[in-house]
Amino acid sequence: QVQLIESGGGLVQPGGSLRLSCVGSGRVFSLYAMAWFRQTPGNEREFVAGITWNGGLTIYTDFVKGRFTISRDDAYNTVYLQMNSLKPEDTALYYCAVDQEVYRAVPAKGPEVYDFWGQGTQVTVYS
To answer: HSE on the CB side for 63, CA within 13 Å?
Structure first.
């Protein structure tokens, strides 16, 4: 059974930093792209960042470019999201997800291609 467990969320002031972690089990994660999404109440889940199976390509949505960095350590089945210069509008429940296909060349931005999700970790940026 595939499981993804996120951690690292919390309360932070604007301009602060957090590093989210997502540990996976039940799949050979080194074969799959991984991604982070986020969601706020009443809104759809939105793509934040993605990384290919080999870490060779990362993509970001415009509102986090230059501030967030996605990375992976397959020795620990873990994907990270380093978040710097946080803004109040970054407040959301953050989810990690694993692609349903192996060796995808470019991480997909649509949630429909990710077949397993974590339970989410809350990030709150307050002033």
So the answer is: 11
Cα four-point dihedral sign 62, 115, 106, 72: positive
List, for residues 87-111, the tens digit of each pLDDT value.
999 999 999 999 999 999 999 999 9
Q: Which amino acid is at 107?
A: P
Reduced to 3 states (helix: H, G, I; strand: E, B; else coil), residue 62 is: helix
Tell me the pLDDT tens digit for each residue of 9-32.
Answer: 999 999 999 999 999 999 999 999
> By C-alpha distance, which of 73, 75, 71 is closest to 83?
71
Amino acid type, 115: D
Query: What values do phi and psi take at 2, rounded to 5?
Result: -80, 135
